[in-house]
TrEMBL record:
Segments for region (Disordered): 70-89
Record-linked SUPFAM superfamilies: Clavaminate synthase-like
Name of the molecule in the record: Phytanoyl-CoA dioxygenase
Top-level taxon in the UniProt lineage: Bacteria
Length: 311
């Protein structure tokens, strides 16, 4: 089966933004939304501050290194790592619910969410949602440490492997991601208009990618860049066998009025206040979901950012 490295070697043009899908805060929002609607993915360059992301990466890295080691129970009472990681990470890394990744008082996922609320990219999120009342669906978010390994090509759609109800996903690497060096994401544009047939493990197959190389894109991310892709967008994880580390978060959100009840625990609700700044106005975390401290910390960090003039 064709590997990611072989795909790029045979088709180096997929490293280029041939479809014009990279934008900055100076781009008119209708242009960004039009590109997303047509291509299923957009890159938002410089959306988050690299300095703060470096701190988040270091915290995530320390957390990952402690997996499998005896540590004291977390004083916050929030959920700890799954027993899946009782002996440490796998060869390919580990993945977690966002509130589980903690390093003493640091909660990198909470920091990234707070940074996103301060960013111009949040207006893009609101526009895609069709509302300034947005709920962050924390149980559908993910934190991943990927250790790069050689991977075959293949692709999946989030409407199949995440939820058919969530309209889009935001992918935030905490550092540079350079194809052929670091595991990242690749996309196939334009997206189909429906959920595609899949193999038993949810993958739509290598043939789909191989037959649509003209629409393939494996972008380079610089720290602070993020991509937003729709639930129908076929995308794939890249892997080259370099054994490099990649730390990233997947964030999922939608309009309050559109969110199914079962996806809203835990959740953070955001609305724009009178002066136009987005604020956390409500949180939800049932007693069965041990993420109360994380939810509170996220709201606090978001509020501190606004008081510091970051909105």
């Amino acid at each position: 089966m064709l590997s990611c490295r072989e795909l790029i070697k045979g088709h180096p043009a997929i490293l280029e933004d041939r479809h014009g899908l990279s934008f900055t805060g100076h781009t008119p929002f209708p242009t960004i939304i039009d590109a997303l609607n047509k291509s299923g993915v957009v890159m938002l360059r410089g959306a988050l501050p690299p300095k703060e992301l470096r701190s988040c990466r270091r915290s995530f890295e320390r957390f990952a290194r402690r997996l499998g080691k005896r540590v004291a129970p977390d004083p916050t009472g929030d959920e700890g790592p799954s027993t899946e990681w009782a002996t440490g990470e796998r060869e390919e890394g580990s993945w977690h619910r966002p509130w589980i990744v903690r390093d003493r008082d640091d909660t990198p996922a909470a920091a990234v969410i707070a940074l996103l609320l301060r960013s111009w990219a949040w207006k893009v999120v609101e526009t895609v949602c069709g509302s300034t009342d947005v709920v962050l669906l924390l149980a559908s978010c993910a934190a991943r440490h990927a250790i790069d390994k050689e991977l075959p090509i293949g692709a999946h759609q989030d409407c199949k492997v995440v939820s058919p109800d969530i309209p889009f996903s935001i992918w935030v690497p905490l550092h540079d991601v350079v194809p052929l060096r670091t595991s990242g994401l690749g996309f196939i544009v334009p997206p189909p208009s429906e959920m595609l047939p899949t193999l038993p493990h949810g993958d739509i197959g290598a043939d789909y990618v191989a037959e649509r190389v003209a629409g393939a894109w494996t972008p380079t991310y610089r720290a602070g860049d993020l991509t937003l892709h729709t639930k129908l967008s076929p995308h794939f994880t890249t892997g080259y066998g370099t054994r490099s580390d990649r730390y990233s978060f997947e964030i999922r959100a939608m309009a309050w009025t559109d969110a199914p009840e079962q996806l809203q625990d835990p959740a953070i609700y955001v609305r724009r206040r009178g002066d136009g700044a987005p604020v956390v106005v409500q949180t939800r975390c049932s007693g069965d979901t041990r993420a109360q401290a994380f939810v509170a910390k996220t709201a606090l960090l978001a509020a501190r950012g606004l008081s510091a003039g970051f909105a």
